[in-house]
Amino acid sequence: MTARVFTTRPWHEQVVFCHDEPSGLTAIIGIYSTALGPALGGTRFYPFESEDAALADVLNLSKGMAYKTALAGLPLGGGKAVIIGDPATDKTPELLRAYGRYVQSLGGRYITACDVGTFVADMDIVATECDYVTGRSPERGGAGDSSILTAYGTLRGMRACAEHRWGTSSLRDRTVGISGVGKVGHLLVDDLIEQGAQVVVTDVNERAIERVQREHPEVHVVDDTQTLITSDIDVFAPCALGGALNDDSVPVLRASIVCGAANNQLAHPGVEHDLAARGILYAPDYVVNSGGVIQVADELHGFDFDRAKGVAAKIFDTTKEVLELADAEGVPPATAADRLAERRMAAARTPAAAAS
Known about the structure:
Elements (H helix, E strand, L loop, with lengths): L1 E5 L7 E7 L4 E9 L5 E2 L2 E4 L4 H21 L5 E8 L2 H4 L2 H13 L4 E2 L8 H7 L20 H20 L8 E5 L5 H10 L3 E5 L3 H10 L4 E2 L3 H5 L5 E4 L18 E2 L12 H7 L3 E2 L2 H4 L2 H8 L6 H8 L2 H15 L3 H17 L1 H5 L1
Parallel strand pairs: 4-6, 4-7, 5-6, 8-9, 8-11, 9-10, 11-12, 12-13
Antiparallel strand pairs: 1-2, 2-3, 3-6
Helix pairs in contact: 1-14, 3-4, 5-6, 5-11, 5-13, 11-12, 13-14
């Protein structure tokens, strides 16, 4: 078991390269900030083309997690890990246990959880070698699937956007278009139907569409995301892959609000300005989709669903705060969210905050 450790300035506190030859583990752990507390973030298991690509991913994701936990009001920092390999062929209990030993060696500076390519059962295995694991099964003291509170938090953010744009948080009779009705998206459909909204959906997975149609025959289905974004919808909710807001989609988007659960919705810097120029209100994804991290963070205190849901309910207030700050400072909401997160982390680093 070997590791290379270095710091990257002026951003990340620590980056650890992990290699365990017997199990075949090659991983990178990135800790962006521990100003507010231990760095929490999931483990992505993915067949990256190169170590450089994996490093770029872990650096971006760990920074995003720091901003997400800061805006969620959690006493936690941000980190992320990637395991390089194909989870379908390379994932073994031995590899996961070796990974758990690396996380354990950081002494609690980094707390892991599920991400792309890793699941609750995997976290249970990691936890056999490590005390700093969330996203475990209920049988192992964990919260299980975090999709419920991710969808719930996204709905709270959407209602805050509605109040900011239309003067009421009600979504009744508003048309919401959801791109991606998988684990989170189909739960968001449930919540919106309960709110009295009209829902239009699309997904490349036919089984996901069939499930929605079976549970909610009144939901309208369109062929693809391009058709969805050019439809007469009030709210566009990206809930699939990142990059949904790009140079092609933003000019033809007809919604007044964008609020969805997908990560990294802005394809590149500058898209937030394009949205603002068209008068489209954008709820930064890491603000409204933080219900999942709130849920796994609650495991650190012995999971209580009602307590975690109470924290996730505050996503409404945080979204409003971000939108109001954007108006006050004359910047897009994405910029306002970044500034608010950075101010909270900076305040935690001051001597006065450290002494309190």
